[in-house]
Design a protein that fits this description.
Single alpha-helices involved in coiled-coils or other helix-helix interfaces; about 400 residues; 3 domains; GTP binding; two-stranded antiparallel ribbon; binds guanosine-5'-triphosphate; GTPase_ArgK; alpha/beta; nucleotide-binding
């Protein structure tokens, strides 16, 4: 029988060992349900029987379904039926469920997601194994013209018979409660369109949390029949990298400005762009837009290629005049077809799933580490000693990990 070996460093092991000793935590409850015997198998190399593991996953789900009370079961049935029949209210309510911080509702959300994932897998199998929706990430500095662009492209696509959903990731709402993407009403026309669904960014939580719920919201939108999912973020902090990791195609929107206004655009994110759109290419801005197009075309040539089947392109468009908008979409379709034809798009999604899982693990593990009583006691003193140079960071980390993994301190 094939074995899967999970090799972990000391750090990972002691963290996992500790998490598994949290009987009340959701992580623990899920881990123990998903991997029965989890606690007993974390030695330096852990053999896990693949089929046992698979059985564990379905058992976990079955347990969770059996655990549901009557009202919970009815709520999930209502949401699921409403969602897959394309009701916007059910989609909105389902996304609210995945955004919740309430531990029990979080579990319900996972049951709903599993059902929707199973439904989507079925649809994909009818579609020759190909994804049923196209996920596009859009990022750019504040004022680049993102919402104007999404409004015009979105309207064009619903006019062509597509169902378009727009999800936002606003990093500022996580830290300050404010909003970089503007409190103004955005995409007014698209929000009235019955074939469009617009969901603003959650207004609280960590970026990791928002990223997680956005990933889950994408799955729900696809389950509700939206074949184009646009994920918008402002080009600040790490949010654009997070978005680039959850979509099939990443598009960078750049205004036709130079110098300081473009300083904020990170080289790292340009490398991730599959398409660069120079916005506002109309009137007096056509000339600077052309110049920026030339500059970015040269810059992209120097960057490492991300894909075997696609060379990133730089195009110009105006949301005000509509010029270049159909051409931008045509490029996106070209990209999608090329990536689908050789399986790269599917491969990218598979890799993203793994990244997503590890991000969640890291976030959870760190949370438990930071909230462990032994760690909390020792941390201020050790941080102080490290900053004064009295204790090396390595020794401090070892001491904290010891505090974390010691059985007496975890009780
Ligand atoms: N000339 C011109 N102006 C545009 C175009 N698109 C957007 N603008 C203007 O640029 C400004 C910012 O546009 P938005 O679409 O709100 O930009 P955004 O990137 O969504 O902005 P934030 O929500 O602040 O991140 C507005 O004043 C728009 O009218 C365009 O195609 N041409």
């Amino acid at each position: 029988m094939p074995h899967v070996y999970y090799k972990m460093g000391r750090f990972g092991l002691s963290l996992l060992r500790h998490i598994s000793s949290f009987p009340s935590s959701r992580t623990c409850c899920l881990h123990q349900r998903v991997f029965p015997g989890f606690q007993s198998c974390y030695k330096s190399t852990i053999p896990v029987h693949t089929c046992q593991q698979r059985r564990g996953v379905s058992t976990a789900l079955r347990h969770q379904m059996q655990d549901l009370s009557g009202p919970e079961q009815r709520l999930l049935d209502k949401l699921y039926e409403g969602l897959i029949s394309g009701q916007r209210a059910s989609l909105a309510e389902s996304i609210t469920l995945v955004e919740t911080q309430h531990p029990r509702k979080k579990e319900l959300a996972q049951v709903l997601l599993q059902k929707v994932l199973a439904y989507r897998r079925e649809q994909e199998s009818h579609n020759g194994g190909k994804p049923v929706a196209f996920r596009v990430g859009l990022s750019g500095p504040p004022g680049a013209g993102k919402s104007s662009f999404i409004e015009v492209v979105g309207k064009m696509l619903t006019g062509r018979g597509h169902k378009v959903s727009v999800l936002a990731v606003d990093p500022s709402s996580c830290t300050t409660g404010g909003s970089l993407m503007g409190d103004k009403t955005r995409m007014t026309e698209l929000s009235r369109d019955m074939n469009a669904f617009i969901r603003p960014s959650p207004t609280s939580g960590t970026l990791g949390g928002v990223t997680r719920t956005t990933n889950e919201a994408i799955v729900l939108c696809e389950g509700a029949g939206y074949d184009i999912v646009l994920v918008e973020t402002v080009g600040v902090g790490q949010s654009e990298f997070a978005v680039a990791d959850m979509v099939d195609m990443f598009v960078l929107l750049i205004p036709p400005a130079g110098g300081d206004e473009l300083q904020g655009i990170k080289r790292g994110i340009i490398e991730r762009a599959d398409l660069v759109v120079v916005t506002k290419s109309d009137g007096d801005l056509v000339v600077p837009a052309r110049r920026i197009q030339t500059e970015y075309t040269s810059a992209l040539k120097l960057l490492r290629r991300q894909s075997k089947s696609w060379n990133p392109k730089v195009v110009r468009a105006s949301s005000h005049s509509g010029e270049g908008i159909p051409e931008v979409w045509a490029k996106m379709e070209l990209y999608r077809d090329a990536m689908l034809a050789n399986g790269e798009l599917q491969g990218r999604r598979r890799a993203q799933q793994k990244v997503w899982m590890w991000n969640l693990i890291q976030e959870n593990v760190l949370y438990h580490f930071q909230n462990h009583p032994g760690v909390r006691d020792a941390l201020p003193h050790l941080e102080d000693r490290v900053t004064k140079g009295a204790v090396s960071p390595g020794l401090a980390a070892d001491l904290l990990l010891k505090a974390f993994s010691s059985p007496s301190s975890s009780s």
